[in-house]
Design a protein that fits this description.
Blueprint (H helix, E strand, L loop, with lengths): L1 E5 L2 E9 L6 E11 L4 E11 L7 E11 L4 E10 L10 E10 L2 E10 L10 E3 L3 E6 L2 E8 L4 E8 L11 E10 L2 E9 L3 E7 L4 E4 L11 E7 L17 E6 L3 E6 L2 E7 L17
Length: 283
């Protein structure tokens, strides 16, 4: 099951894998907030056919993303083949679908990754649409190429310094677009913890002090926001002035701006990764 907010509605998706036939469907339930009842009411319930070969599919995530081809925000679904389907023993196959309306799904494209146990990998679904993940010391980016009309995959090796040993642990915490450049952020530790930013546009890896070093070992997840208002010429880097919301394993939610702590909140639950971000636009 997956949830996404789009156009003032909350949409719930579910995969309906048929046991005794090749028919597979995506269940779509749309809930709209009623001001009079002060609750969400289901307004749409659909069962859309999934025209993909394979015996079983699993949801990875669903998000409202910017489609660079159309310039519109659309609901995108990321599916992977389940354990019952093996095309190549050492690969995992993924599919990106667009919800064009509540009556149809469109397969935008597919891609494969060189990992048989993809359930252990955390994937980040971002504008483009694009997918980012970390595997064996490298950060991978799968992006939709509108010219080729397919997904292409690139990677950047994080432990590429002459002073580092291969296999340095890298914990990917966020990936997104900053000033139209695809950026992955996380931490790596080889005796000391360091906050690392991977700039896919420049194929570059930098250590940027977006948060003080003391918080890096206890970080569990984060959210990055660009400043709402930018003054021309006041920033030397695309990372300057960023809002970073960092959740820790101590039950804290911290807000940093340009590496300085601005606010701190105590979370009312133990696992910060349970935080869901739903951005709803009300007409």
């Amino acid at each position: 099951m997956a949830l996404v907010a789009s156009g003032g509605d909350v949409i719930q998706f579910s995969v309906q894998n048929a046991i005794n036939s090749d028919e597979k469907h995506i269940g779509v339930d749309v809930f709209h907030f009623s001001k009079s009842c002060r609750t969400f009411t289901r307004t749409v319930k659909k069962l859309l056919p999934l025209s993909l070969s394979g015996s079983k599919f699993e949801f990875v995530c669903a998000r409202s993303l910017l489609n660079s081809t159309t310039g519109m925000y659309q609901t995108c679904l990321l599916l992977r083949h389940g354990q019952g389907y093996v095309k190549h023993a050492s690969t995992g196959e993924f599919h990106v679908l667009l919800l064009e309306d509540y009556d149809s799904l469109f397969l935008l494209g597919s891609f494969e990754i060189q990992a048989s146990q993809t359930s252990d990998i955390e994937f980040y679904f971002i504008d483009g649409p694009a997918v980012c993940w970390n595997f064996q010391g490298s950060v991978f980016f799968a992006r939709y190429n509108s010219t080729l009309e397919e997904f292409t995959t690139d990677s950047i090796t994080v432990d590429n310094s002459m002073n580092e040993q291969l296999g340095v642990e890298f914990n990917l915490l966020w990936c997104g677009l900053i000033k139209n450049k695809m950026i992955a952020m996380g931490s790596r530790s080889d005796g000391k913890a360091r906050w690392t930013c991977v700039n896919h546009h420049q194929n570059d890896i930098q250590e940027i002090p977006l948060v003080p070093d003391v918080y890096v070992p206890i970080a569990t997840c984060c959210l990055v926001r660009e400043p709402l208002q930018l003054t021309s010429g006041c920033f030397n880097s695309i990372f300057d002035g960023l809002d970073v919301y960092l959740a820790t394993n101590r039950g804290q939610l911290l807000n940093f701006v340009s590496g300085c702590l601005k606010s701190c909140w105590q979370l009312p639950f133990s696992d910060p990764c349970r935080i869901w971000t739903l951005e709803v636009i009300l007409n």
